[in-house]
């Protein structure tokens, strides 16, 4: 895939692009390297991948990285990040990360996100999720994962809208502030 060397990353992208695949993948960028290295690898590969096929980035799934990578020319992603975060008591909200294992949520009878239409937010409170976490109930992990996946789906809809309206850069800065 080219590692973190410009020449080999470009050469790999050219070879992949020349093959008769339905899309082109960029991999080897989400395994713990500094963000700058990941973004450099994308910068080096994208110019050598056709716009006529989807550009797929493997293993990237944080809200900030998704929006940043779309702005770099990436079309689709996959990642354990949203479900892994949910399993570790972290949920995504319009105000950033929320850590539901804290005692502050013990008596909080609001949904994770007030206007969220996911199954979790429509049916369960922060207090109930906090309780499930405290008693080590596996359903808590599932519910938090459902919310995070829904959140990212809505985020990507917002990204598409921002692109259509010509305000992706402004939207990207908002997401960076939310999740910094």
Structure explained in plain terms:
- The chain has 180 residues and is mainly alpha-helical.
- The longest helix has 26 residues, at 139-164.
- It has helices spanning 6-18, 35-45, 63-71, 81-87, 119-123, 126-134, 139-164, 168-178, and strands spanning 24-26, 55-58, 76-78, 90-93, 96-99.
- The mean pLDDT is 95.
- It is 51% helix and 10% strand.
- The chain has a 3-stranded parallel beta sheet.
Strand order of the largest sheet: 1-2-3
Uncertain segments are none
Q: Rg from C-alpha positions?
A: 18 Å
Beta-sheet strand percentage?
5-15%
The profile of the biggest β sheet is: 3 strands, parallel
SSE class: mainly alpha
Q: Into which percent range does the helicity of residues fall?
A: 40-55%
What is the chain-wise order of helices and strands?
A: HEHEHEHEEHHHH
Q: Report the principal-axis shape.
A: elongated
Helical stretch tally = 8
Mean pLDDT over the full residue set: 95
Distance between the termini: 30 Å
How many distinct beta strands? 5
Oligomer: single chain
